[in-house]
Structures are given as C-alpha cells and as structure tokens.
Amino acid sequence: MNTNWMSCTLREGCEVCGSQERLVLCSTCNVVQYCTEEHRLEHEATHASTCARIEECRTEVRQQRDILEAAIPQFKFVSEGSENAPEVVEVVDYLRARLQLVEAYSLPENILGLQVSLDNLLEMVKLCRLDKLNFRWMTLGVMLSEPRR
After folding, report:
1. Half-sphere exposure of 144 (CA within 13 A, CB side)
2. Domain residues of the chain, as ranges?
3. Residue 75 burial by CB count (10 A; 0-12/13-18/19+): exposed, middle or buried?
4. How far apart (Å, rounded) are the C-alpha atoms in residues 71 and 6?
5. Cα 105 to the chain's mean position, in Å?
6. Contact yes or no for 64/41 (Cβ under 8 A)
7. Which of 57, 75, 120, 140 could bridge across to 104 with cysteines, CB 3.0–4.6 Å?
C-alpha cells in the first residue's frame, strides 16, 4: 500500500498550482482537482497512470460486487464462518478488490484521495467482522494521519 501520505504534506486544491478557487474534479477518478483546463492538460501525462489504475480498480470492485449480488439476492454480506447465517458467502475477493481501490485512491497523495480512501476503509469495516486483510488497522492509521480542518 502506498503509505507516502503518512509522512508527507498532502496537497489540497489544484494539482498544478494549489489554487482553491473554481476547482473541477477529474471526470474519471473524481479525486484530482484542477482550477483551469490548461492545468488539467498540463498534468494529464502525470495523472494518466494513476487515473487508469483507479478506474481499473473500480471495475474490479463492481465485478466482485456483481458476483456477490448473484450469490445472495438480498445482498447481505456475511462473514466467513458465521454459524447463525443461513448462507455463508466468502467476501475476501470483494474486500481484496476494494483494498486495491483504497491503495489506488492514495496514489495522488492529496487530501481528497485520503478522504475517499478512508470512506472506503470504513465501509469495508462495516461489511465483515473478520479482518484477514488488516484494513481495520489501516483505517485507524488513515484517521490518525488525516489533517484536521
């Protein structure tokens, strides 16, 4: 996992100049902001691989979610080994895909990416009581490192 955000200053605002005015999100990843079209075009080559990685991870999460929806019509996540559940469905593949998405969101190393990563980690904690992937500890680390406003 990219942990650079734990030890660096996270960017806010336009990726190129830091401006806080008239910001527009990247239409693909929705994590990187620009104040002008010129700045978006200037940063496009740098941002392209990160943006593609985020989109690739989103696609994998959607595919894993579709698999779970097909397995459970009412789509209830059940932790592995739960004795009270009538039907136990393994969610590790879905959570692993979601964790890769969290990692991709941390690549831009900006506050918006950190917030989206945290939101995804918190949702993952809600989905499963067992934590084979240790995302509860990652969630705590992200929450502690998030700048206070």
Report:
1. 9
2. 4-145
3. exposed
4. 38
5. 5
6. no
7. 57
Q: Decide if 59 contacts 53 (C-beta within 8 A).
A: no
Helix, strand or coil for residue 33?
strand
For residue range 102-117, list pLDDT tens digits in order: 889 988 888 888 888 8
Q: Which amino acid is at 53?
A: R
**Nearest alpha-carbon partner for 103 in 124, 75, 132, 89:** 124
H/E stretch holding 80 reads none
User: In this predicted model, what pLDDT tens digit does every residue of 17-47 receive, in sequence order?
Assistant: 999 999 999 999 999 999 999 999 999 999 9
Burial 10-47 (b: 16+ CB within 10 A, else e): bbebbbbeebeeebeebeebebbbbbeeebbeebeeeb
Element (H, E) at 25: strand 24-25
| CA atoms in the 13 A half-sphere facing the CB of 141 | 14
Q: The pTM is what? A: 0.71
Scan for tokens 């739960």, then name that residue: 82
Report how far residue 27's alpha carbon sits from residue 92's, in angstroms, rounded to the nearest whole number.
30
Cα 130 to Cα 78: distance, rounded to the nearest angstrom: 10
